[in-house]
Amino acid sequence: MSKAFVGVRLQRLREERGISQVALAKTLGISPSYLNQIEHNQRPLTVPILLRINAQFGVDVQMFSDDDEARLIADVRDVLAEVGGDTVSLAETRALAANMPGVARVLLELHRRARVASERAETLVATVGDSNHLPSFSLLGKHEEVRDYFNRRHNHIVELDEAAEAIFVDGDFVVGEAAQALMARLAERHGVRVLIGGSENSEKQRYDERSKTLHLADFLRPGQQAFQMAFQLAALEMRPLIDALIRDGGFAEGESRRLARIGLANYFAGALVMPYTRFLQSAEELGYDIERLSSRFGVGFEAVCHRLSTLQRPGMPGLPFFFVRVDRAGNVSKRHSAADFHFSRVGGTCPLWIVYEAFSQPDKVLSQIARMPDGRSYLWIARRVVSGPIGYGRPQKTFAVGLGCDLRHAHRLIYSRGLDLSEPDASTSIGLGCKVCDRQDCVQRAAPSLLERASLTLP
């Protein structure tokens, strides 16, 4: 931790457990006055005391890390920039995120709902008078609600991960060859028949509930077939657990629940095809070489990147990665973060980011040391990926996927070979997107920053 002044979080822990300050001080073996100073940020929370808290209460030490705080600060700054709150200083934003994180998250949720309501109103205005084309509720807020749920859990759903690993072990599944075992489990336990081929569109799978038949596209590789079968297994076998996760996640709207169900089923599928312990051991052994992991587990480059961003099991964590998928137009269709990297909610992304260079160098894994405006540096790797039907005249989808981690972890990745991780000039200065980036000297700036007061004058 770069700092450990987390008094409010310690007070919150006491409130949740119903413990007095005197009782907690006694449990931790310190004086009440010392604890009082910690809770009022007059003394830092030291590592020995943090370890005692973990031992006594089983609390994840990440609760006292500043990674969540950094992401929360960035989120609040995004919102303030969008609503014109440029009079709020960075110091005030930091104080809000550090001392009242619950309030900050409520403000973010209120802003999300306001955006959704505004978009719905604009759609109503645009379609007024057309009674045959009534607008539906905007999906943007729903997707962000689901993404925020995964981010709050550091992109790791321990309940689904452990359930998937138990099935892999109990079913004697083989790494990289899970398709046949999954086909047999679907047939024996659920009476589901799997048919491959016969589809002329880009649909990967279709389940016919009446005939209990799972149709898989003919262009799927064995690992992709296994993933789609595992997705269907989640719908059939993990429904009670997924229902409980959705209920506990507080998803109120029907569309949010549907998107959350898909996201959780996809998570389970990845965890079953790439079981946690075996996958993490392989990643460490291979220096996080994505292409070799792809070959070993029989899945694609994107699937491996996504799985690497989920390895945050308490007591056995992998590296905290960030994962993103973009198209040529800069649209971000997937983004997950297991640590403190912040994906902007407004303003697009940065053209200097290595993920866009991947489109011009197909099938090559590119690397970049990127430095953000707040001074933090990251190692990013990126590659173009193609998916969809194979054959003449059958359109495919093209994306670039990126995987990043904090520079302090970079030495553990094979992709850091040949890079000078200690040389600041070796890094590329990037931002979150022009509208929320305060680098005024950037040669790629396409729009003025909303974080700075700007007066527009006619030429």
UniProtKB/TrEMBL annotation:
Alphabetical UniProt keywords: DNA-binding, Transcription, Transcription regulation
Domain HTH cro/C1-type: 10-64
Organism superkingdom: Bacteria
InterPro entries reported for this sequence: Cro/C1-type_HTH, HTH_RamB, IrrE_HExxH, Lambda_DNA-bd_dom_sf, ScfR_C, TransReg_Diox_bact_type
Gene3D superfamilies named in the record: lambda repressor-like DNA-binding domains
Similarity remark: Belongs to the short-chain fatty acyl-CoA assimilation regulator (ScfR) family.
Name under which the protein is recorded: XRE family transcriptional regulator
